[in-house]
Amino acid sequence: MNKPLAQYLFGNETLFVLDKSGPESVSDLGMVKEVIQNVVKEPTQQLNTEAPKAPMPPQDVVLTSKVVVMANGFTEPQIGFLTKVLAAVNFDIKNVELFDVLKLQNQMVNFESSSSEKIISFGVNLRKIGLNHPLKLNQIIPIGSKQILIVEQIDKIQLNQNDEKKILWGLLKSVFDIN
User: Its domain of life (predicted)?
Assistant: First the structure.
């Protein structure tokens, strides 16, 4: 290694100190050996030689409540509205699973394994969570023994500009067998 390269690489580091007043002596070499031995004695950091593990694929979501309400998030006013809607079909909101689709992270809902009987989707794009049926608003989709009701977003139903509440009530009566 030439001197300019050594100065460039190690110019700001103190590797060892030599007396610059005279030529190198045998005592200087002894000091260098001592410094090297001290460096070797210091513990070295263990290198991780294991190959990185691939991330686990996200697990499918399995719905477990008898009735599930899906939406793109829930606000307090929306929960108040849902409490009234569910009470009209004789269900307490405490016994219903509120499923926030926005909290999914590349997951799909496994509808076949879910024990839910009735799923109400308020403005959720069900293709996003793995349901690939032709979808239209205000319809009931049967999947085996399950019924999935697809309606407008909760906020739009609350505004009731196009009789969304009346449409929702008619569909709920059909899903929950209310005359």
Answer: Bacteria
